[in-house]
Write a structure and sequence with these properties.
The chain is α/β, with parallel strands linked by helices. It is built from ten helices and 13 strands. The N and C termini lie far apart (41 Å). Bound molecules: NADP nicotinamide-adenine-dinucleotide phosphate. NADP nicotinamide-adenine-dinucleotide phosphate binds next to helix 1 and strand 5.
Length: 303
């Protein structure tokens, strides 16, 4: 399999490149603003040149773990949110489909309203936020235009080792190491998902040519405080500085699904026990940080 990862500099993208190479695929990755050795510059906002680069390279599969992923920022700039999370992936997807290649996009449980989660692939979406609306529109248009040539992977609360060191676990560990309090929402529930496992599963689904829509999340659906405490304990940190407040008191820019999270009936039938539970994932996270120097290490930089 020849694969391209658009957003190889990001959290899921970095893990995808690792997984693809571990499984013997020929893989290249791109960055938009944060360069790492070996990555190719590609700005998907430049619709014409990014599509022609894809048509010239003709990879068998394009993974697209990219976009404008700042949920509150999307709420402030609807046009940018739709351009980055809908128009840009659709443009690349059309280029991939033009020669019969396959396109794998990443979506979110924020396509649901969070009144009755966790949700299966068959539950009707009703996004509350601009981010969720743009992601849902991309799901619909990719399915309609590419059919069997596309796979949409919905995931949630992704955490784990990454080079940019931005995800929630990094923010939490840095705050606790610096002796700062950490306030998390008390009433937001979802499915923490370990990035390296999301990536490994995505690569296996690509190898099997799975198409359509699939949920790929960790096996637990828990609240943010429980998640945060588990990370703190896994990193040998005192969780007592973590407290929780209702979402209504936190003034987050975008509305969040409260009772969110995803169920994985399709994944369970295709690859049973594909995703490790939270405790094993956190232990692996710490072990990878000990083993590899190319990840950001939240234990070494307080903030
Ligand atoms: N993280 C989560 O909890 C979560 C949950 C559900 C769904 N998802 C979805 O999963 C995907 C990956 O998430 P992530 O957490 O890995 O994101 P991330 O770490 O924020 O990475 C985003 C990637 O997109 C790239 N990018 C941004 N603008 C671009 C552009 N104009 N052209 C090309 N590349 C561009 C970034 O490149 P530079 O950094 O080099 O600019 C980066 O590599 C996203 O679609 C996200 O919506 C994530």
């Amino acid at each position: 399999m020849r694969a391209v990862v658009i957003g190889g500099s990001g959290q899921i993208g970095g893990s995808l490149l690792d997984s693809l190479r571990e499984r013997g695929a020929e893989a290249s990755g791109t960055y938009a603003t944060v360069a790492y050795p070996g990555l190719i510059h590609l700005d998907a906002a430049d619709l014409e040149s990014s599509a022609s680069w894809i048509r010239a390279s003709r990879p068998d599969v394009v993974f697209y773990p990219a976009g404008f992923t700042w949920v509150d920022g999307c709420e402030r700039d609807r046009d940018k949110a739709f351009f980055a999370n809908h128009t840009q992936p659709l443009n690349i997807a059309r280029a991939v489909a033009s020669y019969g290649g396959r396109f794998i996009n990443f979506s979110t449980d924020y396509v649901f309203d969070g009144l009755s989660g966790p949700y299966t692939e068959l539950d009707p979406p009703n996004p509350l936020s601009v981010y969720g609306q743009a992601k849902r529109q991309a799901e619909l248009d990719l399915e309609r235009e590419l059919g069997e040539l596309q796979l949409t992977i919905r995931t949630a609360w992704v955490f784990g080792p990454e080079r940019q060191g931005k995800n929630f676990a990094y923010q939490l560990v840095r705050a606790l190491k610096a002796g700062k309090p950490m306030i998390v929402p008390s009433d937001q529930v979802s499915s923490p998902s370990y990035g390296p496992d999301v990536a490994r599963v995505a690569v296996e689904l690509a190898e099997r040519r799975v198409s359509g829509l699939i949920h790929v999340v960790g096996p637990e659906t828990i609240d943010r405080l429980t998640f945060a405490r588990a990370i703190a304990l896994g990193f040998d940190l005192d969780p007592s500085a973590i407290s929780a407040k209702p979402t209504a008191e936190l003034a987050q820019g975008a509305p969040r699904p409260l009772q969110g999270g995803l169920l994985t009936p399709r994944l369970d039938s295709l690859i049973p026990a594909a995703m490790r539970p939270l405790d094993q994932s956190i232990a692996d996270f710490v072990a990878r940080l000990d083993r590899r120097s190319d990840y950001a290490d939240p234990r070494k930089s307080a903030g």
